[in-house]
């Protein structure tokens, strides 16, 4: 089964790119981030015409997450990350699909740091860590995937010396990601490519894509019950070169059936 994550950076504005990639890559399950569309403006019919069922949590102008499944039912578990009833951001959605719990997330950027936005990022991260621990207690196959807005190590960022004060690379952010993975989650890309330079995001400015000056911020974390089934992981880097594309690349893994 092929499972993908893709920060589309505006689902309606990038819809031709999304549909082209779905047709080309044919993933079975997809988590989308940054829909940037209110609930009623999600392109449900176009997604269904492409062969996918969908659940989504939209938000006007910002955020927004979705889970798509090709020819499979999606049983929604949650559309909010526990821990803050006042948090109105559409950043998390969770469902059962084909006997796997899928958590799709869009972690806050946090810039400028330090400041209120960075505080919110760390608070959100703390909520994710606590929820992830509860998911592990289920001892079921679980995937937590999406745009984490964190480069875990210097291998995951072009010219790391320039990013020391950025919210995506500050020590507090990297420590939070390590605390999460230390629970027992497997970083799928790093399991298969421990020493390779792999990026999933390229800024629109300064020819970042052409220079391969990127960041690895879109991640797959697999629970211990699912990690042994990991067979492949790739970044569809070429999609970043398409016209009117997102600044993120789709990332996907393949897991064996039970």
UniProtKB/TrEMBL annotation:
The record marks 149 as: Transition state stabilizer. Pfam families: Exo_endo_phos. Its cofactor is Mn(2+); Mg(2+). It is an enzyme of class 3 (hydrolase). SUPFAM superfamilies: DNase I-like. The active site is at residues 106, 147, 248. PROSITE patterns: AP_NUCLEASE_F1_1 (PS00726), AP_NUCLEASE_F1_3 (PS00728), AP_NUCLEASE_F1_4 (PS51435). Probably binds two magnesium or manganese ions per subunit. Its EC number is 3.1.11.2. Mg(2+) binds at residues 7, 34, 147, 149, 247-248. The record marks 248 as: Interaction with DNA substrate. Residues 4-248 form the Endonuclease/exonuclease/phosphatase domain. Keywords: Hydrolase, Magnesium, Manganese, Metal-binding. One of its GO terms (molecular function) is double-stranded DNA 3'-5' DNA exonuclease activity. GO terms for biological process: DNA repair. InterPro entries: AP_endonuc_1, AP_endonuclease_F1_BS, AP_endonuclease_F1_CS, Endo/exonu/phosph_ase_sf, Endo/exonuclease/phosphatase, ExoIII-like. The record marks 218 as: Important for catalytic activity. Belongs to the DNA repair enzymes AP/ExoA family. This is Exodeoxyribonuclease III. The gene is xth.
């Amino acid at each position: 089964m092929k499972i993908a994550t893709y920060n589309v950076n505006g689902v309606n504005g990038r819809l031709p790119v999304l549909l082209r990639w779905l047709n080309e890559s044919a993933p079975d399950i997809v988590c989308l981030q940054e829909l940037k569309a209110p609930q009623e403006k999600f392109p449900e019919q176009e997604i269904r015409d492409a062969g996918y069922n969908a659940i989504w949590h939209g938000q006007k102008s910002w955020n927004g997450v979705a889970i798509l499944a090709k020819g499979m039912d999606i049983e929604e578990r949650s559309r909010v990350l526990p821990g803050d009833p006042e948090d109105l951001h559409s950043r998390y959605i969770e469902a059962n699909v084909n006997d796997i719990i899928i958590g799709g997330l869009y972690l806050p950027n946090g810039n400028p740091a330090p400041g209120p936005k960075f505080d919110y990022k760390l608070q959100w991260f703390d909520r994710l860590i606590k929820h992830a621990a509860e998911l592990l207690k289920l001892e079921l196959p679980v995937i937590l995937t999406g745009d984490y807005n964190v480069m875990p190590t210097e291998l995951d960022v072009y010219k790391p010396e320039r990013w020391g004060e950025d919210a995506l690379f500050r020590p507090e952010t990297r420590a939070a990601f390590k605390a999460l993975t230390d629970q027992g989650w497997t970083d799928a890309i790093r399991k298969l490519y421990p020493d390779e330079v792999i990026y999933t995001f390229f800024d629109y400015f300064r020819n970042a894509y052409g220079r391969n000056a990127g960041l690895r911020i879109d991640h797959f974390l697999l629970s211990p019950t699912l990690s042994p089934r990991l067979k492949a992981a790739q970044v569809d880097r070429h999609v970043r070169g398409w016209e009117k594309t997102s600044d993120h690349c789709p990332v996907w893994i393949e897991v064996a059936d039970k």
